[in-house]
Each structure stands twice: as structure tokens, then as C-alpha cells.
Write a structure and sequence with these properties.
Length: 171
């Protein structure tokens, strides 16, 4: 059964010297949550959601990438909060180009759009769900032609500095 195989693979995920202290500590939580989710997959069609948050350069992406790769399951996906930065106004874009815009501020994100995506994934419709692509050069979201599409995931890991900021996401 796939669940037992996943548990064994998770046990082999070990912190390495490139990971920060917070990432080493955080490695256990998503891995165990993912393993628990794999056990629940056959009982529910709704995806199991895991949120991974932490400071800049704390190892969030490294931890998530290792969990996803260790599970080796097609229906395990990660969504980065970076995809949900909002388009900047002209004045904000000038500030961003001068390195004077705070991209770590909650107002920099389009949490409403992220919630729409999460709700679509929860509903488990037949069609793929579009994840936007943000262009850090132009400080704007690219057209829908550049979207990534996710179909019927069983585990969704949402990762980012403020991935757990919005109370609606935690509910």
C-alpha cells in the first residue's frame, strides 16, 4: 500500500548542513502531517492542506521541496505564496524598483485570490485549478497563459512567509 511506502520515505528525510535551525525543527511537522494525510486520503475526496510559514530565508521552500519529493506521489502539490503577490500600482512599482517596497507586508499579497484557489481545490471539481505566476521584474502577475494548473491533488502544501497570516486560510 502506498501509505506504508510513504512513511518509510518520510523517515529517510533528514536535516542537512544547508538547512537553517528553524528548517531542521520544522521538517518534522510537515512530514508527519503529510504522512497523516496519506492515511486519510482514501476516506475523503477533499484535499488535505498543510501550511508552512516562517521568516525570510528560514528554509520553508527547502522543507516543502523535501517533503514533496520524499512522498513521490503525483497528487502532492505545493503552492508558494509568492504566486499571489498583487499587481503593484505605478507608485509602488517605482518604490519596488528602488528596493523600497516591503514585499513581506500582508498588504503585498492577494489573499482573496489565494482563498479562491484553495476553495476551488477543496471543491475538487473536474477541471484544473489555475495558479498565477508573478513576475518579479515587472512586479505584476503574468497573463493566464503563464498559469500553472493543478488537477485533483490529495495533499496541498501552501508555503510562504505569511502563509498562515490570514485567518480564513487557517480555518
Amino acid at each position: 500500500m502506498r501509505t506504508n511506502e510513504s512513511r518509510l520515505q518520510l523517515a529517510s528525510v533528514k536535516p542537512d548542513s544547508k538547512m537553517g535551525r528553524a528548517a531542521k525543527l520544522a521538517l518534522c511537522l510537515p512530514a508527519f502531517a503529510a504522512a497523516a494525510a496519506m492515511n486519510m486520503l482514501q476516506k475523503s475526496r477533499e484535499p488535505f492542506f498543510i501550511g508552512v510559514a516562517g521568516g525570510t530565508a528560514s528554509g520553508k521552500t527547502s522543507v516543502v521541496d523535501r517533503v514533496v519529493s520524499s512522498l513521490r506521489h503525483d497528487s502532492v502539490v505545493s503552492i508558494t505564496l509568492d504566486c499571489f503577490y498583487r499587481d503593484l500600482s505605478d507608485a509602488e512599482r517605482e518604490r519596488a524598483n528602488a528596493n523600497d517596497f516591503d514585499f513581506d507586508n500582508p498588504n503585498a499579497f492577494d489573499f482573496d485570490h489565494l482563498l479562491e484557489v484553495v476553495d476551488e481545490l477543496k471543491r475538487g471539481g473536474d477541471g484544473p485549478v489555475a495558479i498565477p505566476t508573478y513576475d518579479f521584474v515587472t512586479h505584476s502577475r503574468l497573463s493566464a497563459a503563464h498559469d500553472t494548473h493543478i488537477s485533483c491533488p490529495q495533499i496541498v502544501i501552501v508555503e510562504g512567509i505569511l502563509a498562515l497570516y490570514d485567518e480564513r486560510l487557517r480555518d
